[in-house]
């Protein structure tokens, strides 16, 4: 809806009304058409102001409506009618002007923004481009380079930057609508041609071809196969090289391809999935809107290694005071310096002053006594963690929440070592913790709903996408990674090289394939865990690590290369070689080829040619199957939870939605058939056997992903 009123006799005020973000639903578009017509027809009205209800201008098109039949008046003619108006139209921008909202504002003759507003064309993040003439008007207004930046990244700008770029004419910290009304009155009757952006020529650049060539290369490098950023460059190029009307035609053509693409569907699914994970629930029935979080102001982090340092930075940046505890003298000194540097870099990036004086460094636990919440990040060693939790229980005030950043150890076991197991939860951050957006909040059998609510809220305040998951070995993300990594190892044994496996998965869209990723995070991490599990241990009789463990196929290739001291980037050698320890550029290593040849010969394995399709199917379908298993067990509550975890924690390409969305796109029947095929070929790999939930979903006709949660309620009782 849009409401019309007349202010001070001569200014028509149009207010968009569709909470919470005044999205341009069919009703809102109809409202705009009707109220603009009214304003144009009423002779008393000399100028017009458009604003949004509740101090929010407009969040753009109604994304929910994209999947249904589009009704209501189309946006583009409506926007053109506003620009063509003979009465000046002023946009009063408060809160946000995003996507179609900014395109609406760009059709107005003047734009006045509140200092706190944010503006942008984020369509690319939804797999689209600004197709209500945004790709044609913005370059004409602010130049090609700045428009390319905004349109291809979708980033939001502050009002100050919008003013500097020339997107808005004036910024105010007063009541924006009042300022706009006064301004509209002052420009009534003034000529408008110079204010119609579609009439502007696109500002020339020195070498347009080179500029677009460079932009296209940059975008292709970072897009990881996403098509929308490429289409955005093409649309801006049309603005720079074609007359306005032809540019619009090109914009429309490009949008038609994007609008119906699977990538747009995936990205829009991902948008809503990110919001859905905030509506968490626990098996007990406790959920996000019925539980009050505990108040948290003072926090502590125990262990200042790789993870602890990032967590201290993230907490500090979110405004919490932190007691940072590290027992190792040298580590404490190094951590202090590293944290200070991270805070300075972060503050510089955000244009604020660094906040270091809220951190207290300590060798001992004493200063932890009066904190509200502790995050433990010591070595992944249960005995050590038990000791730390016992110390914490003794020193902390009653009611302090005890969280562990373990990558996968048993939360229930740890909780059982404390007098208040209801106050123990997992807060599983991802490295680097101050950068990565994902947080798995792991509830144990006894974790209280308030403890979970508090950890979820803390994650939100730290700017994380937090997902509540159940307790099991590896939780959701690392548990699903295990069958994926196992397949990668098995493929090496069967004839693949690390490069071949990585390339197939990087072409799929992962930032790094499994071997480059393992080199980055340290191959020894998994090796130590496998040794703890009794897997990477030589058989006393043969002196070799067995290739069958507990009746299942096991690949010791990772263990064997660790025994050679090849831990990845940090040692300068791993699956690849690097120019020095700590080097970043991975090069194929002839040593690895020789090692794999000898390994295969020792075990009588005849190498074969491996197709990238097989790499994708075996690695991804094994991971997806484990995803279904976590849903079946209720460890993950919904497919959206898994997809958000994989997109934000494991670099699953967002334009493919996430593993469960991808399974839906590929077709559950195909996934099940291919798993069965591979399981027949490898009967000693149980993770290739389709799990019950997957079979059941196929048996009932493979319902679409948005129906799984509903169906699972019935199916779980039958599994
Ligand atoms: C706005 C935000 C920054 C607010 O953030 P925050 O305060 O943190 O709140 P949230 O929790 O995110 O949101 C609250 C609530 O609102 C919902 N919501 C937010 N935005 C929208 C929206 N735009 N539409 C619908 N719903 C929205 C959100 O989901 C929450 O609800 P919940 O899920 O129930 O919890 C933040 O929300 C944000 O960033 N929003 C998205 C802003 C955005 O991306 N806007 C751009 C939208 S796309 C757009 O505008 C494009 C256009 O306008 C182009 C139109 C041209 C159309 C032409 C079609 C031509 C097609 C041709 C095809 C031909 C094919 C054929 O041939 O058939
Ligand atoms: N490294 C990673 O990518 C990720 C690690 N994790 C988990 O986070 C935890 C920490 O991992 P990292 O930071 O990588 O380890 P790390 O080895 O880099 O750091 C651990 C730190 O804890 C300190 N420490 C040991 N005992 C202590 C004690 N009693 N009191 C205070 N400090 C103590 C050590 O001196 C060391 O500085 C582990 O549980 C790990 O599984 C979780 C997610 C990702």
From TrEMBL:
Q: Does the keyword Heme apply?
A: no
Q: Report the protein name in the record.
A: Peroxisomal bifunctional enzyme
Which GO molecular-function terms appear in the entry? (3S)-3-hydroxyacyl-CoA dehydrogenase (NAD+) activity; delta(3)-delta(2)-enoyl-CoA isomerase activity; enoyl-CoA hydratase activity; NAD+ binding
Example GO biological process: fatty acid beta-oxidation
Domain of life of the native organism = Eukaryota
The record's gene field reads ehhadh
| Taxonomic lineage of the native organism | Eukaryota, Metazoa, Chordata, Craniata, Vertebrata
Self-association or partners: how does it assemble?
Answer: Monomer.
Q: What keywords appear on the UniProt entry?
A: Fatty acid metabolism, Isomerase, Lipid metabolism, Lyase, Multifunctional enzyme, NAD, Oxidoreductase, Peroxisome
Q: Which residues form the 3-hydroxyacyl-CoA dehydrogenase C-terminal domain?
A: 474-578, 615-701
Q: Which Gene3D superfamilies match?
A: 1.10.1040.50, 2-enoyl-CoA Hydratase, Chain A, domain 1, NAD(P)-binding Rossmann-like Domain
Please name the pathway: Lipid metabolism; fatty acid beta-oxidation
Q: What is its main location?
A: other
Q: Which residues form the 3-hydroxyacyl-CoA dehydrogenase NAD binding domain?
A: 299-471
Annotated family: Belongs to the enoyl-CoA hydratase/isomerase family.
> Which reaction(s) are listed as its catalytic activity?
(3E,5Z)-tetradecadienoyl-CoA = (2E,5Z)-tetradecadienoyl-CoA; (3S)-hydroxyhexadecanoyl-CoA + NAD(+) = 3-oxohexadecanoyl-CoA + NADH + H(+); (3E)-hexenoyl-CoA = (2E)-hexenoyl-CoA; (2S,3S)-3-hydroxy-2-methylbutanoyl-CoA = (2E)-2-methylbut-2-enoyl-CoA + H2O
């Amino acid at each position: 809806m849009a409401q019309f009123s007349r202010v001070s006799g001569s200014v028509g005020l149009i207010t968009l009304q569709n909470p919470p973000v005044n999205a341009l639903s069919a009703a809102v578009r109809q409202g705009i058409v009707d109220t603009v017509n009214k304003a144009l027809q009423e002779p008393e009205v000399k100028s017009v102001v458009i604003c949004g209800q509740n101090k929010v201008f407009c969040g753009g098109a109604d994304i929910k409506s994209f999947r249904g039949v589009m009704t209501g008046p189309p946006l583009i003619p409506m926007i053109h009618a506003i620009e063509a108006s003979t009465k000046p139209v002023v946009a009063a921008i408060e809160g946000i002007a995003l996507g179609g909202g900014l395109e609406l504002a760009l059709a107005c003759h003047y734009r006045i923004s509140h200092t706190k507003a944010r503006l942008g064309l984020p369509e690319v993040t939804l797999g689209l481009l600004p197709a209500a003439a945004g790709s044609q008007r913005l370059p004409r207004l602010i130049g090609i380079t700045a428009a390319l930046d905004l349109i291809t990244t979708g980033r939001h700008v502050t009002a100050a930057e919008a003013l500097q770029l020339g997107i808005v004419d004036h910024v105010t910290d007063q009541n924006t609508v009042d300022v706009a009304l006064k301004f509209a009155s002052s420009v009534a009757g003034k000529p408008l041609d110079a204010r119609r952006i579609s009439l502007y020529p696109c500002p020339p650049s020195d070498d347009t071809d080179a500029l677009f060539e460079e932009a296209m290369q940059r975008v292709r490098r970072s897009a990881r196969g996403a098509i929308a950023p490429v289409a955005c460059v093409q649309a801006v190029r049309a603005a720079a090289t074609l007359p306005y009307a032809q540019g619009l035609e090109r914009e429309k053509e490009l949008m038609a391809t994007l609008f119906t693409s699977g990538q747009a569907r995936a990205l829009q699914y991902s948008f809503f999935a990110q919001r859905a994970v905030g509506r968490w629930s626990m098996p007990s029935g406790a959920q996000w809107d019925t539980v009050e979080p505990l108040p948290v102001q003072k926090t502590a982090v125990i262990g200042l290694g790789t993870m602890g340092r990032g967590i201290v930075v993230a907490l500090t940046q979110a405004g919490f005071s932190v007691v940072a505890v590290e027992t190792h003298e040298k580590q404490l000194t190094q951590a202090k310096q590293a944290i200070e540097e991270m805070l300075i870099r972060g503050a510089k990036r955000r244009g604020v002053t660094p906040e270091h004086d809220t951190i207290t460094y300590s060798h001992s636990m004493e200063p932890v006594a009066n904190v509200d919440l502790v995050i433990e990040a010591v070595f992944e060693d249960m005995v050590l963690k038990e000791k730390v939790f016992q110390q914490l229980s003794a020193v902390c005030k009653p009611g302090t929440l005890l969280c562990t950043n373990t990558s996968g150890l048993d939360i229930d076991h740890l909780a059982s070592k404390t007098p208040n197991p209801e106050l123990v939860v997992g807060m599983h951050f991802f490295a680097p913790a101050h950068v990565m957006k994902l947080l798995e909040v792991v509830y144990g059998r006894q974790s209280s709903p308030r403890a979970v609510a508090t950890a979820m809220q803390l994650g939100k305040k730290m700017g994380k996408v937090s997902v509540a998951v159940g307790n099991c070995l590896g939780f959701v993300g690392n548990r699903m990674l295990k069958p994926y990594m196992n397949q990668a190892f098995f493929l090496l044994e069967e004839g693949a090289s690390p490069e071949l496996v990585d390339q197939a998965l990087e072409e799929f869209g992962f930032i790094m394939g499994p071997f480059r990723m393992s080199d980055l995070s340290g191959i020894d991490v998994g090796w130590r865990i496998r040794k703890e599990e009794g897997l990477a241990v030589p058989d006393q009789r043969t002196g070799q690590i067995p290739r069958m463990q507990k009746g299942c196929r096991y690949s010791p290739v990772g263990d064997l290369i660790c025994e050679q001291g090849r831990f990845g980037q940090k040692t300068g050698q791993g699956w690849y070689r690097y120019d020095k320890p700590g080097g970043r550029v991975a090069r194929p290593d002839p040593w690895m080829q020789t090692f794999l040849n000898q390994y295969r010969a020792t075990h009588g394995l005849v190498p074969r040619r491996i197709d990238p399709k097989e790499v994708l199917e075996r690695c991804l379908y094994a991971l997806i199957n484990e995803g279904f298993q976590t849903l079946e067990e209720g460890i993950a509550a919904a497919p959206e939870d898994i997809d958000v975890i994989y997109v934000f924690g494991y670099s699953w390409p967002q334009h493919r939605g996430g593993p469960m969305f991808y399974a839906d796109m590929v077709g559950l029947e195909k996934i099940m058939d291919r798993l069965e095929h591979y399981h027949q070929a490898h009967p000693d790999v149980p993770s290739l056997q389709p799990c019950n939930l997957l079979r059941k979903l196929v048996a009932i006709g493979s319902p679409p992903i948005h129906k799984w949660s509903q169906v699972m309620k019935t199916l779980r009782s039958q599994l």
